[in-house]
Every structure is written in structure tokens, then in C-alpha cells.
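Please annotate this fold before class:
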Amino acid sequence: MDNTNWTKLHGEAFVGARALVTGGAGFIGSHLVDALAALGAKVVVLDDLSGGDERNLLQSRDRIELIRASILDQAALARAVAGCTYVFHEAARVSVPASVADPRGYEQVNNAGTFNVLEAARNAKVTRLMFAASSAAYGESETLPKVETMPVLPQSPYAANKVSGEAMVRAYAKSYELDAVSLRYFNIFGPRQNANSAYAGVIAAFAKKLVAGERPVITGDGTASRDFTYIDNTIHANLLAARSTNRLHGEVFNVAVGCRYTIKELAEKMAALVGRAELAPVYAPERPGDVKHSLGDISKAQRALGYQPIVDFEQGLKATVAWYRGT
């Protein structure tokens, strides 16, 4: 949230440190950029703006360096990472259904791109790299909550990309001086999440409909559940991982809140927040690749990183809906 006091949480840990954020003009990346800038870091953003928006950087634009390039551009990556202590690798194509429709495109950006970022970080002698992994790695396992020791069962090209990225991150952390960590994000939401894509995240998509006075569309029967995690919790986890005094060895950590809500419950809560409780959802067929239930066990991140959610679901949802309403 705009009133999160990052300095109170992280002190002077990042003052003067040079940090690269790939995909820094995107939803998660831009919030990370703002937090790092507020903490006194020298922030470099690498983004080709294919999924991000330069307007997301308005809050910190005069305090950062923006390089408009893709993670497939090795020369641009080398320029961006030079002198960096940290790399936060957020750049990716991110939609499950879009990955089903375009597996080759997802393989190129997410897998080859992640390899490029790791190589650039290794060559630049970066201290630590944080990789944006995904809870999609767990697939359709019926076991809840999801624990990092569970087998990975990706059921979409996007999920497979993220699992592959985790493996590369671990390999680099074990093979080279570069330390690294994979943070498995659980259903991140908040201001700036793109609501205009056909593959928009559910909260962004619901907000767009409800603010326009339209009924939200639920794919499936509405009983699917998610561990919705507000954006500031994600940023907090990244910063904690970056400043950890222990070597992290490419380990995987869940980034979640540890409670879940059904999609039907979500629709009802959001309709109430916009004052349009009468806008009951309509239902559409399930999408291929989607998982039924998601709930993260965060005890490993609590022990190793000191992670604890700083914004709960209700607070985050209220702030998010207010942002989409422009209030």
C-alpha cells in the first residue's frame, strides 16, 4: 500500500546499492522499483514495455535509470547489470491460458530470457539474484497447503517455464559464486495490475467489470480457491531475500498469506466494496491449465527469511478496489 513504510521495515540495508529490476515497468516490478528507490538504492530498470507500462514508474522516474530492452538482448542486459549487487528478475510472459495458446513464445522469453539474466548476473559478479517463481509449479495436487518439498507438477507451459527457471537458478547458485533464490508467488494482486488483457488476473478483471457496472465473469463454478497475496507482501519477501545474511543456495520459498478464498467469495466481496452487491457473477467454462485450489505454507520463508505478511487480504482488497475506482 502507498503508506507502507519500507524504511521502517528494512532500514538502510539498500542505501547506495545498485539493483537491477527486469520487467521493472510491470505490475510487480514497478512496486519493487518504488520500494528500492524509497530505500535509497540506485535502481536500473530493464523492460521492453511489451507487458509493462512506463506510467507505472511515475512515482520513481526521476530516481531510476530505464533501459528499454528485452531480456533476450544480451548486450542490453550486460549494460544494465554492470555494477549491480542485486538482480530482481521479474520479467516474464505471465498468463497460463496465453501460454497454452503460444508455448513457443513463452519458452523463448521465459526460459531463454531467464538463462540470459543468470549469465549476465554471473558475469557481472552480482551478489544475489531473486527469481519470480510461481505457485503454478504445484499443479493440481490435492494436498493443501502447498509445501516447497512437494513434487512439482506443472500443467501449463507457463508453469513448466517457471519450474525450469527454478532449476536453472538452483544450478547457478550451486555452480558459481552468484547466490540466488526462487520465490514462488501465490496469486499476487494490487494496484497497477493490468485489467485490460484478455488474460487479466481475476481481481483486476473483476474490478474492471464492477467499476463499469457490469457483472464479473467467473470461469468454472466459482468453488476454486486462491491464496490471494497483496503486492506489498511480495515486495517485502523480495527485500528480505536480498538482504539475508545467509547464503540461500537457489532454494525455493513460498510467498503467500496462508489463507484462501473461493472465486465466488471474492466476487461477492468486491461487489460489496464498489457498492454494487446486486452485480452477481456470470459463469463461463473453465480455462485449460488452471488449477482448482491454491494455499501456501509460508513456514519455510518465516524461518529462513523472517517473512511475515504485512498486509492481509481484506486490507489489500480494499486498497486495490479503491485504486481501480480512482479513489
Remarks:
- The chain has a mean pLDDT of 95.
